[in-house]
Design a protein that fits this description.
Distance between the termini: 16 Å
Number of domains: 1
Shape: globular
Number of helices: 0
CATH class: Mainly Beta
C-alpha cells in the first residue's frame, strides 16, 4: 500500500463499520496473513479490493472478498 502506508506503520482499525468505496481495510489472506487493501467496489457482502501501489501485483486484486474476511477498517495510522 506504499506510498501512503509503509511496512513499519501501525494502523488502528475498527470492526464496527460499514466499509465504503475508497476505505482502507485489513483483510485476512490465507497466503499472506493480514494485509491492507483499498475498497474499489461493493456488491452486497462482496468487495473488490486494490493495492495503492500499482507496481506490485497481488492476487487479492483479482478476486471478490467476502465481508467475513475483512477484519476491520483503518481509522488511524501511526508512522514510526
Amino acid at each position: 500500500m506504499a506510498p501512503k502506508y509503509l511496512d513499519q506503520d501501525i494502523v488502528i482499525t475498527s470492526n464496527i463499520f460499514s466499509a465504503k468505496i475508497n476505505d482502507v481495510v485489513v483483510v485476512r489472506s490465507e497466503n499472506h496473513g493480514n494485509i491492507l487493501k483499498r475498497v474499489i467496489s461493493k456488491n452486497n457482502n462482496a468487495f473488490k479490493l486494490q493495492s495503492d501501489n500499482k507496481s506490485y501485483y497481488s492476487e487479492i486484486n483479482d478476486s471478490s472478498i467476502l465481508k467475513k474476511d475483512i477484519l476491520g477498517k483503518v481509522i488511524f495510522k501511526i508512522r514510526i
